[in-house]
Protein: Indole acetimide hydrolase
Organism: Streptomyces viridochromogenes
Amino acid sequence: MSSLISADHDPSDAVSRALRKVQETEATIHAWTLVDAQNARTAAERVVDGPLRGVPFGVKDLIDVAGLPTECGSSLRRGRIAQTDAWLVDRLRRAGAVPLGKTVTTEFGYFHPGPTRNPHNPAHTPGGSSSGSAAAVAAGVVPFALGSQTAGSLTRPASFCGVAGYVPPVGAWSTRGISGLSPSLDAPGVLAPGVADLAVVVKAVDGTTAGVPESIRVLVWPGTELADIDPAMLDLLNRTGQALASAGAQTDDLGGQGHTPELADTHATVMAYEAARSLAAEAKHPQALSEPLRALLERGRTTSDADYRAALGTARTARERILDLLTRVDVILGPAAIGPAPRGLAGTGNPVLSRPWQLLGLPVVTVPGHTNAQGMPLGLQLVGHPEHVGHLLGIAEHVESLIRGARRSDD
């Protein structure tokens, strides 16, 4: 993104390039629900000076852009026009960025997929629910795009599409103007080609500056207690841990300290209970909802208030424990997904490796840079302390350089 924020950068040229890339790629990847070419060109001509001056970006179709529809991947919201920008879109406009249009989301940010395909192989899912945003960035259409996460909705597509992703601590960035699923879990986020690009956007939004601490302390977490992890993903994790140690980092295993199976189950309880209330009006039209979403809402409807309160209590206790752990280490390093993007478009993959950390409201960075033998991307995730996001981003950039360096050596 550095070339797009240089002093001689021309905003109109940047928008025109993005629109040409849409024409070149959209018939294959289907990343966009709407491209607002006229308004993007006008905005580029009138753009305010700022750290993202004239940089075009995509907006997940759960996030409001004034004057454009926010349809949430559902016929029930068809034609709903946003009256104002979401908080995050407004912040980015004030930084000089230009919304190019709306990107595909799964139905209400849950599992039912849209038409988007993975740019690395169109026979594979891009993940979800931030499907279109991940694909648009991976295809080089826009330098960054907005997504959101309730379970693994940003981390997983970032991994599947080979791009970087950032989910801030829950509550750090306002969800005003975002159609949410679970208020305790929802967070907006950003996808970009690399971690350094993420850092530029994050700084423009909230002023955070990336930086690496004098010594790096890492807990490695393979996630094997939650799912069968693809061997290539485990190999990437092990090699990255070894590279960090060789570069001077202190590394150890998370082991059972995370209690992640309990946290994943607790996340599912909270998500279902809150989704049933967030989408209570939509639940009155079951024929317009997918089977996975109907099942989620039914689970939430039948979850008792007592079980929900108990789940929140479990989350609070676990958050205190993990935050204490993260005062003694800098990051937890693990797989961003259980493997590469699955073949087929009927599903979006398994979010289980994100559930524990999203329940606790922790910031997460997805780090790209590696592929399996078939050329499909593999990503790792770094989980950090909410008060040390700058260190999280700086360490993630360091990890990305190690991954890419190892890949060049393999080549």
In short: The chain has three domains: 2-206, 217-255+321-410, 261-314. The chain has a mean pLDDT of 97.
